[in-house]
User: Fold these one by one.
Assistant:
Number 1:
Amino acid sequence: MVVAPSPTATPGEPTMSPYPAPSPAPTPAPSSAPTLAPTFKSTIQSEMKVTGMTIETAQANEDVFVDTIATTANVEKSAVTVVITEEAARRLLAGRMLAEGDISVAYTIQVTAVQKAAVATTMAAATTAEMDAAIQVSATSHNVATAFAAIATTELAVVVTVEETASPTSAYLSSDSASKPVALFGALFAALAFLL
């Protein structure tokens, strides 16, 4: 004889299966992004005076002077900027008449903290003869040696170091800051799933 199993629930009352609460979704740990430190830079600034060419020729061949300064300072050309003006016109206002064709080449060299001392020392020690030789090499490499054949450096100004601090190029959230929104979202998700 087969004996029917006893019901586990009271007769007449349906058995309600419990609705299992979903497991909370795990909160992934954010990857720790590095925080970039500000880039500290300085500039080396000075001026050289040259003669033997017109201001138009000098300004049309600015790259020759950029190369000259970069080679002498042993830095990349992209770190050098120059401003070429007619020195006679400026000095005349101060009551000093200079020979026609005197040209001022003011230059700025961007350097890192590691480069700063060496570049400043090198440029301060440069002579007019060394600058003339560097100009000729640069002019030859740019195929304008004829235009620079009569150029001569007449004066080298005092070298000045200017300290500058650049702003950070990028900003990253710290790992603590980044984890807070993620953890909050995970908690809300788990509570919503439980209610459903």
Number 2:
Amino acid sequence: MDARKAPAGSAAKMVEGNGAATGQAVADRGSKQASEIGKQADSSKRSNGGGGDVRERNLEGKEFEVKAGEALDKSGYTEARDQLRVRTDSGKLRVVDRNATAPNGEKVNIEMKGSDKARYPKAQRDKDKEIAETGGTIESRGPDKGERLPPTPTKVVRPCDIGADGKCR
């Protein structure tokens, strides 16, 4: 195919200034890149527990955060702040899924896990432990920015923690 007749963006379009490149060579490179992307996607599924695409699980996690938030509200949790960015005293950033006041009046951070088997990584646990012991500084945009978060424990909520009545146990 003549490069001048190839449509813009066509894999068969020749690379200008490179006499060695042919339309077929460009097409071969495109096939190789597509193959590599497919391999990375397959690898991603295997390395993340084989439970499907990472984006699917992220979406499921976000949907669960909404459901769990509603369950927490029904259970008497108030003053909820979602996706709160907290900087620990050692300088590590932790995005807390929800910070709220429990029915007993205690402030609590809530980590929502979209499945009963979802990992709670050591890095998250370490930051949560530090926030529970020394607190942190809120970095989220809005009126809370710069506010000092007192030592606050973290509660992990999973689907198995939501009862048939829609309340959080």
